[in-house]
Design goal:
alpha+beta, TcpA-like pilin, seven-stranded antiparallel sheet, 7 strands
């Protein structure tokens, strides 16, 4: 092999290696982009899963805490029923340690883990537990609270409740927004054309919870015992 042939051979060999390296580099880039895409999809799924898990944890905690509070209200019912009409029971519940420790205080109200403002008072016929949401949040905490409390707390109490409803705005110290149809009655109050809580489908209750927040309105969950 002469000198010219040697340089020609070396040039072609180098060119082939360069093309091979370029092809390998190209494949590596495509593979890397594919891996990044997979990581991105998994990350979105992980974030969504975490968010759903946290929401479930909070709603379960919410139901458990309200179950504790309402059990206390029923335990002292005969004492509370003798109070004057319109009397707030919040101070009494606080003294009896019936307000869950996770609740914050906002003036005369207590704020639960999902942002609902709790007010309990004596009306003309019994005890009213109101959970007031100032407005639907971007996390839909109010909607999820409504669904969880209706399904897991109020619905099973259909034999004890006088009524439970979703009302526009706040119920105040007494009164019912009869213009809104989402009021369901306990077994002893369910007469005539009243909607019986025990006969309501869970899907209908969920639709009611979503419907009342549709226009960004304030609303309350109001349970009467």
């Amino acid at each position: 092999m002469n000198l010219f042939d040697f340089f020609s051979f070396s040039f072609h060999a180098h060119n082939e290696r360069t093309q091979a390296d370029a092809a390998l580099c190209g494949r590596s880039m495509v593979e890397m982009l594919g891996v990044l895409a997979i990581i991105g999809v998994l990350s979105v799924g992980a974030i969504s899963g975490y968010s759903n898990a946290m929401m479930k944890y909070k709603t379960n905690k919410l139901v458990s805490e309200y179950n504790y509070l309402i059990s206390g209200v029923l335990e002292y019912y005969n004492d509370f029923i003798n109070l004057s009409r319109g009397t707030s029971l919040n101070p009494h519940l606080e003294k009896l340690n019936l307000i869950p420790q996770s609740f914050d205080k906002n003036g005369s109200y207590f704020v639960d883990v999902m942002g609902g403002n709790l007010n309990v008072w004596k009306d003309s016929s019994g005890i009213v537990v109101e959970i007031y949401f100032s407005r639907p949040t971007s996390q839909n905490f109010g909607i999820e609270s409504c669904k969880a409390l209706f399904q897991n707390l109020f619905y099973p109490l259909h034999s004890t409740l006088r009524s439970v409803g979703i009302w526009r705005g706040s119920a105040g110290s007494e009164g019912e927004d009869t213009s809104y149809p989402y009021t369901y009655y306990g077994d002893n109050q369910c007469v005539g054309n009243k909607q019986c809580l025990k006969n309501v489908k869970i899907s209908d209750i969920f639709n009611a919870c979503e419907d009342i927040s549709e226009n960004g309105q304030t609303y309350s969950l109001v349970a009467s015992f």
